[in-house]
TrEMBL record:
Keywords: Membrane, Transmembrane, Transmembrane helix. The keyword DNA-binding does not apply. It comes from Pedobacter zeae. The chain crosses the membrane at residues 7-24, 30-54, 66-87, 152-171, 177-196, 203-220, 247-264, 383-402, 414-433, 445-462. The lineage of its organism: Bacteria, Pseudomonadati, Bacteroidota, Sphingobacteriia, Sphingobacteriales. This is Oligosaccharide repeat unit polymerase. The keyword Mitochondrion does not apply.
Length: 470
């Protein structure tokens, strides 16, 4: 780890937070200070000479650690995407088309957006603070692989896929099925890149086959997140070997995803009604993209970027609702989340966590009970609803400490960065990239921790890992 002063670095992170709150009476300026504040934190903690980064690996070979990947996805999603909604609010569309009647006019909604952006920035700073506070100079490895080659990744992917498939057959075990499936996908991605880099046909063929099948399945789901997640995983595992190519492709690939994916997925979702198959809907989606329907694509995409890519509009609705029309929830949401950890087999009357979590969404008027939408809250929103601005700071501080601890622990018990961080941590705890509402997130963390130790015991038992003695 670089010999930089962590206290000085941490205090620096809060400079844009302080400035944005000083400018609270100028909501437009305050918003942009808060928005650029997240870019400042990205630069300060990743690229600047003051950044505190472990020196056990070159930076390009550790990008899936929390200070890089988790921070970039979480804060990128929560903090930076709001600019589209804010510019739309100010009368701009795609930063060029202007509604002169709304241009730069301040309103109560402007103040609400700026308030939410300041909390997003505070959460970003607190997240990184938590990561830096518990980040270890050196991770003590407790296990090492017993094989010199990577054949064990093939068997690991088969084993976890098998266990995951069994878990999917039992409704009470669905929460364990997804992390196990993600481990298999990560193993396939690592095998793919190793096979590509070393020209190992076996690794290349198996990795590419598993990953491609999963990508096709994701493209038929009607959801954008599985497709984007697959692209991120593939880019991250290729990055250590092909830095320049990945960097050059990042912007055009992101543009293609943002431009075409919303329209593509909207069409694929026709299959949800059962009137057409997913394959037929997919073919129709490609036809829509190939047609000269540029106006519809742009309309769909702008709605996606302003309403769904960014969730700040939903955040403003909650801030408008609490505490003026509903008192802070205090410990209620957390208590519900802890109750959700109890398996239904031990509590037949356990409330449905989907219903519980959506109730506050309905109460705040964010979504209608008659609609099919599932507008779940995110960690920052639930932290605010529970304890206000102090809740945002302290919960996100703990969030940062937790993700760093889980990453370090995975590297410690699974023998290093590749198996521990890349495959285990970023698969089992992938939900922490963006976070979820408290009810679902507490459940994912608890059972993810159980899964991590179960797999560790399994790999020790079948002699894939052996202990390292002091």
């Amino acid at each position: 780890m670089q010999n930089n002063n962590p206290t000085k670095l941490i205090l620096t992170l809060y400079l844009p937070v302080l400035i944005s709150y000083i400018l609270i009476n100028s909501p437009i300026i305050s918003y942009f200070v808060a928005w650029f504040g997240s870019l400042f934190i990205f630069y300060t903690t990743i690229l600047s000479p003051a950044a505190i980064i472990n020196q056990d690996l070159p930076i390009h070979k550790q990008i899936m650690r929390p200070i890089f990947l988790t921070q970039l996805i979480f804060a990128g999603f929560m903090c930076t995407t709001s600019v589209f909604y804010f510019m739309d609010h100010l009368g701009y569309r795609y930063f060029t088309e202007v509604n002169y009647g709304a241009q730069f006019k301040e309103s109560e909604q402007t103040a609400l957006i700026a308030s939410c952006q300041r909390m997003n920035l505070l959460a970003h700073a607190a997240l990184v603070t938590g990561i830096l506070l518990v980040q270890k100079n050196h991770i003590k490895i407790r296990s090492v692989k017993t094989f010199d080659d990577d054949d064990f990744l093939i068997w690991l992917s088969i084993i976890v896929f098998g266990i995951g498939s069994i878990c999917q057959r039992f409704s009470g075990l669905n929460q364990m099925a997804l992390p196990l499936t993600l481990i298999g996908i990560s193993c396939a991605a690592v095998l793919f890149v190793k096979g590509f880099n070393t020209k190992n046909i076996k690794y290349l063929g198996i990795g590419a086959t598993i990953f491609t099948i999963n990508f096709i399945h994701a493209s038929l789901s009607g959801y954008k997140e599985p497709i984007i997640t697959n692209v991120i995983i593939l880019a991250c595992v290729f990055f250590p070997y092909f830095k320049k190519i990945i960097l050059y492709l990042a912007i055009p690939v992101a543009y293609v995803l943002l431009y075409f994916l919303p329209t593509y997925n909207n069409t694929v979702r026709q299959s949800w009604s059962g009137e057409v198959s997913a394959e037929e809907a997919q073919n129709q989606a490609f036809e829509n993209l190939n047609s000269k329907n540029e106006e519809q694509i742009e309309e769909t995409n702008w709605e996606f970027m302003t309403k769904r890519l960014s969730e700040i509009e939903m955040f403003t609705q909650f801030v408008d609702y609490v505490p003026s029309r509903h008192p802070f929830y205090d410990w209620e949401i957390i208590e519900n989340s802890l109750e959700g950890l109890i398996p239904r087999v031990f509590w037949s009357g356990k409330p449905n966590m989907e219903t519980v979590s959506m109730q506050r969404v309905y109460d705040a008027g964010v979504a209608n009970k008659m609609s099919a939408v599932s507008a779940k809250t995110r960690p920052i929103v639930d932290a605010y609803l529970s304890f206000g601005i102090p809740g945002v700071f302290f919960f996100m501080l703990f969030y940062g400490m937790l993700v760093q601890h889980l990453s370090d622990k995975a590297e410690e018990i699974f023998g290093g960065y590749e198996l521990g961080c890349v495959i285990m941590f970023n698969s089992i705890f992938q939900g922490l990239w963006r976070g979820n509402n408290f009810e679902f997130m507490f459940n994912n963390i608890f059972w993810g921790y159980v899964i991590m130790w179960f797999l560790y015991a399994l790999l020790r038992t079948i002699k894939v890992l052996k202990p390292v003695f002091d």
